[in-house]
Design goal:
The chain has 13 helices and 16 strands. By secondary structure, the chain is of the alpha/beta class. The strands form four sheets. An eight-stranded mixed β-sheet has the order 6-5-7-1-8-9-2-10. The protein has a four-stranded antiparallel β-sheet with strand order 12-14-15-16, with helices on one face. Strands 3-11 form a two-stranded parallel ribbon.
Amino acid sequence: MKYAWIFFLILTWGCTSVSADKPNIVMILSDDQAWSDYSFMGHKHIKTPHLDKLATEGVLFRRAYVPTGLCRPSLMTLATGQYVSVHGVTGNDPFGDSKNPNNPDLKASLISKIDKFDTLPELLGEQGYLSHQSGKWWEGNYKRGGFTHGMTRGYPQKGGRHGDDGLKIGREGIQPVADFVDMAIEKDKPFFVWYAPFMPHTPHTPPKRLLKKYLAKGLPKPVASYYAMCEWFDETCGDVVKMLEDKKVRDNTIIVYVCDNGWTQNPTKPNKYALRSKQTAYENGVRTPIFFSWPAKYKQQDRPELFSSIDIFPTLLAAAGARIPKNLPGLNLNEHMIKGSKIDRDHIFGESFAHDILDINDPEKTLLFRWCIKGKWKLLLTYDGTVSRYKTTHPRNEKRPQLFDLSADPGETENLAKDNPEVVAELVKKINNWYPVKTRKVITEFK
């Protein structure tokens, strides 16, 4: 009996340290940044030394994408692991003519869609994780998304849109995140941090020292301001990493990086993006580098495979030993990154909808793009969805389908659909099997 009691004490003592066998997780989310706008991706002006170090020492996917090129739908995918057409938050705001007979408060009705899904912080919470939201967050109060701690008050609070108080993070330092990490360490709990600063998003108001640096390169001021914002954002990422190192938790912390959607700076208009970037399915709207850094488990890898941000949800849950909901569309790639094994997938999908939601119960009314990438080929199918207030400026300046050879034409300048009907047919079949559209008309004619 005496030895049995000692054995029991050893077992219970080992179970009290929840954080010992669970990795901490820090998700770094950039906001409105093109896939090429990092020095580790080869940009000739922008300097991002802190992200460079994380990317080149971790598992880097250079050919990575978000399924949609707009922030709120993209962030909702990260929180739920579902495509936009499934989670239903297809745009940033309900349009003025939108209706929901069951709930006239359209903003509240849209936010309620998150209640249908197990969220990442909720599932991590089942494993004892404490979680903190900072920066961009659209789905009401941070508690609505399952976070135990956070900064965003959310709708219907005054000013409660897309992050409110949380948008101070990064631009005004990272102290709220540091305080949360201190608390989690003191409680001996594993932690999850959603670090989504409003950067390099407009307003482009970088420190004068950084703006001066880029102006000295002879760049137009709108471009220099945006480039300086990218470097300022990188500096805040360095602050986060240093904080983790100083608290001696870096080795067992997974840092995952992704940008919510792309951005190409308009060279003549401050704080404005150029066409074929944000809100579109072109490369500068949906492509982003994605990387994972976990010193304790992941070796350095520069991986050639296609990666989708929809894979982040199951991958992090697996790394944490958490429950993974059934029928998720993304892949759990945790073991692939630990072992360095090949990922058995050769294509990914995406979809785009208008900024404003015409009918929050019928996503297809504002459907603009469905797309697929397989190997070197990228096919875009365009739909006649209502574009609401962006109707006159939306870059649907070419009839669809559009087929691009990304290996030879990463700028997507030459539509090869006419000359490759068999490729178009193959990718159309894949798209239809993935997301069959019921009510919208695909634009098929050419000009």
